[in-house]
Write a structure and sequence with these properties.
By secondary structure, this protein is an all-alpha fold. Helices cover 78% and strands 0% of the residues. It is globular and about 50 Å long.
Length: 306
């Protein structure tokens, strides 16, 4: 990969975004249960908070006209990109260990590859199929091992499966809504999608939000909520589409490695989790699977070589 000025910007943006994603997992885990904070209340903080921030940001950016038809498409896209992505993820993180949640999220590129074959007619080569098999073996090892590890680091099968569902939802968004992603600026796209997600999450989450004892929250908890909303939601969802302009998709997917690595280092350092042989092997298998998939050629690359 060449490190010209544009690609350098893309690499910097992706390192920043996925490092923040990695820090988000232990940050969420650390506030669940404090003063009645639940996974559902954190989900609403993220969706409503990011919606407010993106609408404020839209005041200072170029205004784009969005046809009513695309408003409807954005509503459907918000289901997969945000509502069905963030809700299962936050609930999953609250149920499982930070390391498990981080490792499971690296299955995203493999799920995207499979769905790209369905929606975008991208070829599934032997190299891609082999990568999916290796990565799936790692994810299954992690999920099955969670049952035996319950009580050690808070691992759970339910939490791991919810994190997988979150990755699947986001993979559907990336492949089924490719035209929408490239048609509008990140601010225009996200201000509408987070608004819809906040409205959808209100009836599901409001009871938990109202039940939180806000008077007892210390500044450290408020700081972590601020990081989860402003950093791990607003900033990351702004950086990702910008970085996509400078880097190839195969290069972008490599940065998924940062998320579980950062999450694991922080979780172990904070005493929130342990890293044993089973998780180590599962991590290696998932990383190997993603790496193999990213080494395979896309349809455009195959046609160009012909």
């Amino acid at each position: 990969m060449s490190f010209n000025e544009k690609s350098y910007k893309g690499h910097v943006l992706m390192v920043l975004a996925y490092t923040i994603f990695g820090l988000n997992i232990p940050a969420v885990k650390s506030i669940i249960g404090v003063a009645g904070i639940t996974a559902l209340s954190v989900t609403f903080y993220r969706m409503a908070g990011a919606a407010v921030l993106f609408w404020i940001a839209s005041i200072f950016t170029r205004r784009e006209k969005v046809p009513l038809r695309d408003i409807g498409v954005m509503f459907i896209a918000s289901l997969f990109c945000i509502f069905l992505n963030q809700l299962p993820f936050i609930v999953g993180v609250s149920l499982t260990s930070p390391i498990d949640a981080g490792v499971v999220t690296t299955t995203g590129p493999m799920l995207t590859m499979v769905l790209a074959a369905v929606f975008l007619r991208e070829p599934i080569t032997w190299l891609k199929a082999g990568g999916v098999a290796v990565g799936a073996a790692g994810a299954l090892l992690l999920i099955m091992g969670a049952g035996a590890a319950a009580g050690r680091g808070g691992a759970s099968i339910e939490g791991d499966l919810l994190c997988v569902a979150s990755c699947l939802s986001f993979a559907i968004y990336l492949t089924a809504f490719k035209r929408l992603i490239t048609a509008y600026s990140p601010v225009t796209l996200m201000k509408w999608m987070f608004l819809f997600a906040a409205v959808l999450s209100f009836p599901v989450c409001w009871g938990d939000v109202a039940a939180v004892d806000y008077a007892s929250l210390g500044w450290e908890v408020w700081a972590r909520i601020g990081f989860i909303v402003g950093g791990a939601t607003f900033l990351t969802f702004f950086l990702l589409p910008v970085g996509q302009r400078f880097l190839r998709p195969t290069v972008l997917s490599m940065y998924n490695y940062l998320q579980p690595t950062v999450a694991a280092l922080v979780a172990v350092a904070a005493g929130m989790d342990t890293f044993g042989a089973t998780k180590g092997l599962a991590t290696l298998l998932v990383f190997a699977g993603v790496w193999i998939v990213t080494r395979s050629k896309s349809r455009a690359q195959i046609e160009q070589s012909r």
